[in-house]
Each structure stands twice: as structure tokens, then as C-alpha cells.
Specification:
Blueprint lengths: L11 H6 L13 E7 L5 E7 L1 H10 L3 E4 L4 E4 L8 E8 L5 E8 L16 E6 L2 E6 L5
Parallel strand pairs: 1-6
Antiparallel strand pairs: 1-2, 3-4, 5-6, 7-8
């Protein structure tokens, strides 16, 4: 059974203090999802979920997202085998974002480039010039 309805509440107090999960999707029907490694706390990726992706994630325990570039549902790991097994989900105070703590299945990479994390580039500034330093993309 896929949950396709979440109770709505625009009341700030209800959003911040209630025990009911009432996610607030944006004007495009999306919710920001921050994904970190369950054991290490490393930031792996930031993606978006629509109602269907959030429902499937809650139902299956495997992270699903909405691909804005492809305009389609995306089960993370479906093509690579690097599924994200959700261990915990948290929401922020106004419930417009979720934080997924996951275990990465397969070879342990979360990024489609083969990097362990999608955040493998550091932005540096040297004498007024902005450049990126790239970590090894391998896990």
C-alpha cells in the first residue's frame, strides 16, 4: 500500500510541535531530501521527493526521488545496484525538508560519477580566483 496522502497543516505550531508528519511540498510538489551515511554522517547527496517518491520510500525502506532533469520517478540504485537503504528519516521544523540516514548497498557509492558522495569537489579561493579542488571520485 503506497501512502499517497499526507495530512496538511499550515498552522506553524502544528508543524513545529505536533507528532504528525505533515510534509510541506513546494509549488512544484517537491520536498528537499538531504541524504547522509548512517554510520559516518557523511553528506552523500541532496535530491527531491514528490508525494509518490516519499510514499515509496516510507513503504519500501529504499530511497526514491523525483528527478527534476528527467521529470520522472527515480529509485536510487536501480541501474547501479547502489541502493540507499533508509535507516532513519527526520524532518525539519517546518517540514519542508527531510533528512535520510542511509546505508549504501552495492559497492558503496552514492554518486552517479562513481564517487562515494556527490560532494567530492571543494571550492577554493586563492588571491581572488575561485577554483575547485577535486577529491578522488573512488570510494
Amino acid at each position: 500500500m503506497v501512502v499517497s496522502f499526507f495530512p496538511e497543516s499550515e498552522d506553524k505550531k502544528t508543524k513545529e510541535e505536533a507528532v504528525f508528519f505533515t510534509p510541506r511540498f513546494d509549488a512544484n510538489g517537491l520536498l528537499t531530501a538531504v541524504v547522509t551515511h548512517e554510520a559516518y554522517g557523511e553528506l552523500l547527496m541532496v535530491a527531491h521527493m514528490n508525494v509518490q517518491a516519499l510514499s515509496l520510500t516510507l513503504e519500501t525502506g529504499i530511497a526514491h526521488f523525483w528527478s527534476r532533469s528527467r521529470s520522472s520517478l527515480w529509485k536510487k540504485g536501480e541501474s547501479s545496484g547502489n541502493f540507499l537503504s533508509v535507516r532513519e528519516i527526520r524532518t525539519d521544523c517546518d517540514q519542508d525538508a527531510v533528512w535520510l540516514k542511509v546505508q549504501v548497498m552495492g559497492v558503496g557509492t552514492a554518486c552517479h560519477t562513481g564517487a562515494r558522495s556527490c560532494f567530492y569537489r571543494k571550492i577554493r579561493i586563492d588571491k581572488g580566483t575561485v577554483y575547485m579542488e577535486i577529491d578522488s571520485p573512488l570510494p
